[in-house]
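FIELD: query
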Amino acid sequence: MEQRGVTVWFTGLSGAGKTTISRAVEKKLRERGYLVEVLDGDIVRENLTKGLGFSKEDRDENIRRIGFVAHLLTRNGVIVLVSAISPYREIRDEVRGRIGDFVQVYVNAPLQVCEDRDVKGLYKKARAGQIKNFTGIDDPYESPTDPDVECHTDQESEEESAMKVLQKLEAAGYLPK
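FIELD: result
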């Protein structure tokens, strides 16, 4: 099967549901026989961007590196699912411009919902001053101004969010209808 590559970039606060939705989309795409690669922010930080901190410069470099790998895969016909906080609008736009075949998914959940979900205990540590430059607490998150898809994970199910993404990929011609 000939498939068209695309990067689907999931952005949002920690705990918003980026990884959860991207994994649901991955499962559905694999069931349909598509070549899919997942670049999860946490896993990338353990490998490709190990040693980078959380200053704005390091965060931007982290996103550039993820974008570089995503671009290589995309131009070779792979559907790339990137799950990364990527808090700054300018670097997201830069990466989008480089990749071209790009669908931005804003995984939107209110800060309080993300803190309530806090499966890793990161918000608690950030509020206690144990983590500096934590997005949403003492470092900004710049919401996308015009995302291709917006998932409100405090109002819709994982399935509903995943279907919105798949429908966008179909509408944009990346998947046959």
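FIELD: remark
The chain has a mean pLDDT of 91.
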